[in-house]
């Protein structure tokens, strides 16, 4: 079983400033990390490969320094990975990103299963996974809570539909997007980091792709434009509930229910 | 010997703090009868929630005149019964004195009331790019409680304990007089350090009403390493080697697979790795990636050389949370794994940690009882828990007494002390007395008498 996990390098902190003029995140000088949502995908992939045999690779799109996140996935136990990097890819929206990834994936080999995280912490669209599947013309399932089995040539999945949880099966090749907190991702190994080989990371550029139409990539391949990005308003209101335990419990319950948290 | 609280006393207390914050009889939640461990229990006659130093002073004047015992309580997270009103009387709760009063960025100090929670102070400091280094596992403890026990926590290896961060204390003496001991200065050679007498006195000398605490600049980088070992013996034996390497981690914690599994059950959350029997968890901090990475690599290499199976890197907020939230829940997790438990918080010289832990394993075998432990391997402060499980009342009392006797005896043999950070309170008085002997206890009693000649403040604790 060959599994590929899509990952992204994101800012290492939630306190990233937004350029008020361009509306772009000010990434320079900010430490970066692997998108936390992708770690659940990596863990799911590695567990699956341990259980049923197979390999796990990763792929990312970004600047050359995105090599670091592929190396990090190798430290977690992944075989190796590929960085799709080219200035021509810059400024890509969801559509262009998904298209670029789909072009890159086709050059990386044949995969039975592609796993994406639910979303990224810097983009938050939660759409790239499904769109990659569309471009690759393979079935996809989002909101996957667990990959329970691989039987009779099909993956058995538990999937959240918000108001209910269903089990379903899907035949490879396919793509799934896993929810957050479905597992505890393993930690990167110092031992592997010590013996990292450069050969574990490959690079692909525009020139390597089948589709050489520049209008499908980067800013010119994007169907949407970002008008404005702004940090969410921070609310830190405190409410103290007085009274004995019963009164406090009832008041807390009512409060949470009114806010639709229960 | 003491007077009971009368209706007139309650009326007077209501005038001081307001009617809503004086509770008596059935109105007092039963939780106020005990602390976190719950072994020692007694309901106060009246619970008084104070809001200011002046109110504390007025309450103490009343108690002094009326000869009513007063026990001070913060969040009630203590483990040795120090905040239990064993003589009844007034339980003075400080949780409403919970304001952070001032941040002095020129002198690197913060002024707080005693009811501020450790987690609130930690977050406040971090928001302002500072670090309040003391880091006990119980983040919902109050700062007043931390000062009263001289709490240490996980960063003590590099940064020291609460005492090292208290610049001055404003207190109310048992007769109601308000005094400030110490000052917001870096050096002090001005007579006996009364401030230092108060720190760790567990509410027996005066009531802490305000504290000026030292902060340090927040280190920009912090990375942890989770190092798996094939067994506890090799994990513990690695600690002196790490200390000898002259790299100073901020924390060196040890944990067994069993304890981690309790924590998984308790939190309903998997730990990143449970394949191995024993782990050491270390943290390194500094201001550059290169420096922190070098420290981390030095220790990782050393651990691998002496038998570690790997060294896992805990470098992002999410990874730190997955590891440290489990570590923070160990006490509660062990508590949830058994019917009842009692704890031993000895501190031994750093190079005796492995000897002491091995001894607790021998005791567990000898007495057929579970004795899980975890703790601060780097500073020799261990948290050892005897679990009751299915033992009958008499068997439990016997096993507990026998095991504690032997453990405290062993700690003394190894050059250690009864308590590293949880204090003596009521539960550990006999062990303190046994270790120190007559003269030191008499000196402590003398100090207590000077502060509190009527013995109304937290009577029956520590040395009396």
Write the layout of secondary structure elements.
The complex is a heterodimer of chains A (262) and B (464).
Chain A: E1 2-6, E2 9-11, E3 32-34, H1 36-52, E4 55-61, H2 67-75, E5 80-84, H3 94-108, E6 113-117, H4 128-136, E7 140-151, E8 154-160, E9 165-170, E10 174-178, H5 190-194, E11 201-204, H6 245-258
Parallel strand pairs in A: 1-4, 1-6, 4-5, 5-11, 6-10, 7-10
Antiparallel strand pairs in A: 2-3, 7-8, 8-9
Helix pairs in contact in A: 3-4
Chain B: H1 7-17, E1 22-24, E2 46-49, H2 53-66, E3 70-73, E4 90-93, E5 100-104, E6 109-112, H3 118-127, E7 130-131, H4 143-149, H5 156-159, E8 166-172, E9 178-182, H6 194-198, E10 207-214, E11 216-217, E12 221-229, H7 232-244, E13 251-256, H8 257-267, E14 278-286, H9 289-305, E15 312-314, H10 317-328, H11 330-336, E16 341-344, H12 353-367, E17 373-376, E18 381-387, H13 393-413, H14 429-436, H15 438-451
Parallel strand pairs in B: 2-4, 3-4
Antiparallel strand pairs in B: 1-2, 5-6, 6-10, 7-11, 8-9, 8-10, 12-14, 12-15, 13-14, 13-17, 16-18, 17-18
Helix pairs in contact in B: 1-2, 7-12, 8-11, 12-13
Give a structural overview:
The complex is a heterodimer of chains A (262) and B (464). The two termini of chain A are 40 Å apart. In chain A, α3 (94-108) packs across α4 (128-136). In chain A, β4, α2 (67-75) and β5 form a beta-alpha-beta unit. Chain A contains six helices and eleven strands. In chain A, strands 9-8-7-10-6-1-4-5-11 form a nine-stranded mixed sheet. Chain A has a two-stranded antiparallel ribbon with strand order 2-3. Chain A has helices spanning 36-52, 67-75, 94-108, 128-136, 190-194, 245-258; strands at 2-6, 9-11, 32-34, 55-61, 80-84, 113-117, 140-151, 154-160, 165-170, 174-178, 201-204. By secondary structure, chain B is α+β, with helices and mostly antiparallel strands. Chain B has helices at residues 7-17, 53-66, 118-127, 143-149, 156-159, 194-198, 232-244, 257-267, 289-305, 317-328, 330-336, 353-367, 393-413, 429-436, 438-451; strands spanning 22-24, 46-49, 70-73, 90-93, 100-104, 109-112, 130-131, 166-172, 178-182, 207-214, 216-217, 221-229, 251-256, 278-286, 312-314, 341-344, 373-376, 381-387. In chain B, α1 (7-17) runs antiparallel to α2 (53-66), α7 (232-244) runs antiparallel to α12 and α8 crosses α11. The mean pLDDT of chain B is 95. Chains A and B meet through α5 of A and α9, β15 and α10 of B.
């Amino acid at each position: 079983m060959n599994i590929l996990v899509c990952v992204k390098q994101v800012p290492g902190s939630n306190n990233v400033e937004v350029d008020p003029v361009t509306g772009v995140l000010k990434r320079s000088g900010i430490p970066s990390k692997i998108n936390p949502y992708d770690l659940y995908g990596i863990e799911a992939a590695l567990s699956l490969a341990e259980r049923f045999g197979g390999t796990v690779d990763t792929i990312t799109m970004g600047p050359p320094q995105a090599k670091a996140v592929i190396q990090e996935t190798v430290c977690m136990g992944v075989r190796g990975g590929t960085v799709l990097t080219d200035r021509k890819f810059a400024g890509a929206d969801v559509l262009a990103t998904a298209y670029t990834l789909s072009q890159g994936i086709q050059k990386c080999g044949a995969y039975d299963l592609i796993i994406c995280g639910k979303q990224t912490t810097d983009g938050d669209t939660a759409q790239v996974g499904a769109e990659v599947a569309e471009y690759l013309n393979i079935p996809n399932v989002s909101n996957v809570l667990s990959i329970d089995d691989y039987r009779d040539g099909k993956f058995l999945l538990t999937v959240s539909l918000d108001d209910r949880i269903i089990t379903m099966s899907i035949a490879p090749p396919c793509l799934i997007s896993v929810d957050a907190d479905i597992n505890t991702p393993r930690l990167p190994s110092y031992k592997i980091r010590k013996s990292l080989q450069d050969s574990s990371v490959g690079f692909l550029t525009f020139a390597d792709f089948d589709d050489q139409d520049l209008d499908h990539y980067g800013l010119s391949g994007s169907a949407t434009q970002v008008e404005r990005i702004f940090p969410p308003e921070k609310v830190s209101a405190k409410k103290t509930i007085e009274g004995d335990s019963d009164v406090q419990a009832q008041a807390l319950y009512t409060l949470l229910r009114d806010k639709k948290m229960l | 010997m003491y007077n009971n609280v009368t209706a007139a006393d309650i009326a007077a207390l209501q005038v001081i703090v307001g009617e809503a914050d004086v509770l008596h009889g059935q109105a007092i939640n039963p939780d106020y009868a005990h602390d976190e461990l719950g072994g020692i229990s007694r309901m106060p006659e009246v619970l008084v929630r104070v809001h200011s130093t002046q109110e504390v002073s007025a309450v103490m004047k009343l108690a002094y005149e009326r000869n009513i015992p007063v026990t001070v309580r913060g969040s009630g997270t203590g483990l040795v019964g120090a905040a239990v009103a064993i003589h009844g009387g007034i339980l003075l709760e400080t949780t409403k004195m919970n304001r952070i009063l001032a941040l002095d960025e020129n002198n690197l100090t913060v002024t707080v009331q005693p009811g501020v929670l450790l987690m609130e102070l930690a977050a406040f400091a971090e928001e302002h790019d500072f670090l309040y280094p003391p880091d006990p596992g119980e983040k919902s403890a109050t700062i007043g409680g931390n000062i009263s026990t001289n709490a240490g926590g996980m960063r003590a290896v590099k940064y020291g304990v609460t005492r090292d961060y208290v610049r001055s204390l404003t207190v109310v003496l048992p007769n109601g007089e308000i005094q400030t001991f110490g000052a917001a200065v870096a050096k002090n050679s001005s007579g006996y350090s009364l401030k230092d007498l108060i720190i760790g006195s567990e509410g027996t000398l005066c009531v802490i009403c305000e504290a000026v605490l030292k902060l340090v600049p927040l280190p920009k980088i912090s990375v942890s390493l989770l190092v798996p070992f094939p067994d506890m013996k090799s994990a513990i034996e690695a600690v002196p080697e790490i200390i000898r390497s002259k790299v100073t981690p901020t924390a060196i914690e040890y944990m067994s697979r069993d304890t981690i599994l309790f924590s998984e059950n308790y939190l309903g959350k998997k730990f990143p790795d449970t394949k191995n029997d024993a782990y050491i968890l270390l943290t390194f901090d500094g201001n550059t990636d290169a420096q922190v990475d070098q420290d981390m690599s030095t220790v990782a290499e050393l651990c691998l050389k002496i038998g570690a199976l790997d060294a896992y890197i805990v470098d992002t907020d999410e990874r730190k949370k997955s590891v440290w939230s489990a570590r923070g829940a160990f006490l509660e997790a062990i508590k949830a794994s058994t019917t009842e438990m009692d704890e031993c918080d000895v501190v031994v010289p750093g190079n005796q940690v492995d000897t002491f832990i091995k001894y607790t394993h021998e005791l567990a075998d000898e007495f057929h009882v579970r004795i899980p432990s975890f703790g601060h391997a780097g500073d020799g402060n261990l948290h050892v828990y005897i679990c009751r499980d299915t033992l009958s009342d008499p068997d439990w009392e016997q096993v507990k007494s026998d095991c504690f006797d032997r453990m405290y005896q062993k700690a003394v043999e190894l050059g250690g002390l009864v308590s590293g950070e949880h204090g003596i309170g009521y539960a550990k008085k006999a062990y303190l007395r046994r270790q120190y002997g007559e003269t030191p206890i008499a000196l402590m009693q003398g100090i207590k008498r000077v502060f509190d000649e009527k013995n109304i403040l937290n009577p029956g604790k520590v040395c009396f």
